[in-house]
Specification:
It catalyses: Catalyzes the rearrangement of -S-S- bonds in proteins. This protein is α/β, with parallel strands linked by helices. The chain contains 12 helices and 17 strands. The strands form 5 sheets. A 6-stranded mixed beta sheet has the order 2-3-5-4-6-7. Strands 10-1-11-12 form a 4-stranded mixed beta sheet, with helices on both faces. The chain has a 3-stranded parallel beta sheet with strand order 13-15-14. A hairpin with a 2-residue loop joins strand 6 and strand 7.
Length: about 425
């Protein structure tokens, strides 16, 4: 069993806005002005944060959900469902997307009485509808004595996931015909039924004794116990999670943190705020002392962010469009003798460099890319970055360069005010 231990620094994001709401194919079109009013008027509302560029360009994982989303709206309307669908153009409403921690497109979030939760279902219209119906359906009966006993145990064992249901279909799927506790796990036999007396002590003992594998390596056990103690020591300051990396659905987590299988088991720390800053321990050995020192150094603001970077390609400089990664970005972009921004047209101009960078696997200090593609011109001499917001054509971008970035320059309020240095990902 290979795990990643992730510590998450908790922050809170709030969005306040008001405004008139329009519809497109039965889907509410939300902006900064009307977002808050839409949430306050809706018990359940699914919001899609999207980019018009999805499906047409980089990155490859950015796929349009538009037609599917429209079908979902039609199905909900035909069934008389009170669930509302909405969408936000994150390219026009970048501030709104940032407030809700949107980093990939499309991103779906379900707001229940104004409180957001991440969408975790599939990408077909049927899968989205079924997920919504399950998440917004009537809650399980929690008034019985047995249910209260179960919930009391769940409240104290906060490192284990608990669920409760009164849904007859779910019970039938798991061969349950009466009140029961079933522990489901991805190892050993996969399932264990509780057959003891319905007391808090008996249920707690059952869960604690069954949720770990019957056979577990000595080293993993030491690491896991050290991590549990770490979570107790820093309770209320950080949230600690373990991730089973052998599960297919968890591969994206490894990609996000830039973790290779050869590094497992390992640990990362992340701040859940608009920059999603990641931290990596200097010592890869997960001893109790090393893990505690790592977390304490973070809380003392002594750690430097961990930035992802691909290796520099051997042929990065062989084509008119240069290939940049985090490791060679500053060397190329901050060359005082050259303006960095169209390949073939300017290949013989020694003062201009045209380059591209995959911002999903390369991260830069003081620079956060919020939309794709992003185009920026770095001026020689002062290394000042100017964002291009004109048409994506050879003529338009050439004018941008030849007019000294006057033509097509983004308005001041479209630039990230807090950043002194910016980056680009594709030109």
């Amino acid at each position: 069993m290979k795990l990643i231990l992730i510590a998450i620094f908790l922050t809170l994001h709030l969005a306040l806005s008001d405004g008139e709401i329009k519809k497109d194919e039965g889907i509410l079109v939300l902006t900064k002005k009307n977002f808050a009013s839409a949430l306050s008027d809706s018990e359940h509302i699914l919001v899609q944060f999207y980019s018009p560029w999805c499906g047409m360009s980089f990155p490859p994982q950015c796929k349009s959900l538009g037609p599917v989303y429209a079908k979902v709206a039609q199905k909900l309307a035909s069934n008389g469902s009170p669930i509302k669908l909405a969408k936000v153009d994150a390219m026009k409403e970048q501030e709104l997307a940032e407030e809700h921690g949107v980093r990939r497109y499309p991103t779906l979030k379900l707001f229940r009485n104004g409180k957001p939760s991440e969408y975790t279902g599939g990408r077909t219209s049927d899968e989205i509808v079924n997920w919504l119906l399950k998440k917004t359906g009537p809650p399980a009966d929690q008034s019985s004595k047995k249910a209260k006993t179960f919930l009391s145990v769940a409240a104290v064992l906060d490192d284990i996931k608990f669920g409760i249901t009164s849904d007859s279909e779910v019970c039938a799927d798991h061969d349950v015909s009466d009140d029961a506790i079933v522990l489901l796990k991805k190892f050993d036999d996969g399932r264990v039924n509780f057959n003891g007396e319905w007391t808090e002590d008996a249920v707690k003992t059952f869960v604690q004794g069954e949720f770990l594998p019957l056979v577990i390596s000595e080293q993993y056990q030491k690491t896991y116990e050290a991590a549990k103690q770490l979570a107790r020591d820093f309770r209320g300051q950080l949230l600690f999670l373990t991730v089973e990396t052998e599960e297919k659905d968890h591969q994206r987590i490894m990609e996000f943190f830039g973790i290779k299988k050869t590094e497992l088991p390992t640990m990362r720390l992340i701040k859940l705020e608009e920059d999603m800053t990641k931290y990596k321990p200097e010592d890869p050995e997960l001893t109790a002392e090393n893990m505690k020192s790592f977390v304490q150094a973070f809380l003392d603001n002594k750690l430097k962010p961990h930035l992802l970077s691909e290796e520099i390609p051997e042929d990065w400089d062989s084509e008119p469009v240069k290939v940049l990664v985090a490791k060679n970005f500053r060397e190329v972009v901050f060359d005082d003798t050259k303006d960095v921004l169209l390949a073939e047209k300017y290949k013989d101009n020694q003062s201009i460099v045209i380059a591209k960078m995959d911002a999903t696997v390369n991260e830069l200090e003081d620079t956060k890319i919020q939309s794709f593609p992003t185009i920026k011109l770095y001026k020689k001499g002062d290394n000042k970055a100017v964002k291009y917001n004109g048409e994506r054509t050879l003529e338009g971008m050439s004018k941008f360069i030849e007019t000294g970035e006057v033509y097509g320059q983004a308005a001041p309020d479209e630039e990230e005010e807090e950043e002194e240095v910016h980056a680009k990902d594709e030109l």
